[in-house]
Amino acid sequence: MQRFKYSLLTILIAFAIYFVSLVLFALASQLLTGGEVRNLDPREFLVTSVVLNGAVILGVWTVSSAHKRGIGAFMKSIGLGRPSFNSISVSIGLLVLYYGTLIAVFVVLRQLGVLDTAAEQDIGLDDSTTTVGIVYIYLALSVVTPLGEEFLYRGFIYQRLSKFLNKDIVIVLVSLLFAVAHWPPNAMVDTFILSIFMIIGLRVTGTLWTPVIMHALKNAVSVSLVYL
Fold it and tell me: pLDDT grade, residue 83 (50/70/90)?
């Protein structure tokens, strides 16, 4: 019962961090657009991404008791050890397996007619064909977003829940929470599978840098397919 209580508390804290971050994101969007209802341009998208993910990281820092013992203790509490070549090689290998698994799952779901695999994820961003605009998008999605989301999901939530629950159960639970934050359903399936492989990478290498690198590379591939 005690484990369940602490696990539920961890999830509620994570949702609170994410909710506050979304509110700040919305306020930043309103300020940048002057209250106008429209998609963000790439520069605005980068700024709001920094606000959103910066708030997430600050929130994780604030609720972690480890930060009182210094940044080193905090980094260790979320599994953020030193990056190494092993993290890079494992990330690339697991991404290959992830893409293979994703393609296979999408083929099956398409054949069953239960999922529109062609649905696009709307992130509220204007199309951009300028070089500077594309650079802003790369920075937002391949640098800022992976750091914020990995601090929260594979750092804070996974590390905390692993203290109270079976780690295999935690893999599924964290991946479900990660998927719920992404819409439409095909993106939810995509991110659920990605999360499983990122946690495997975390467990194999023992550092949060592995899922951060995987997340960054995956997003970079996605941006390249859309804008290049």
Answer: confident
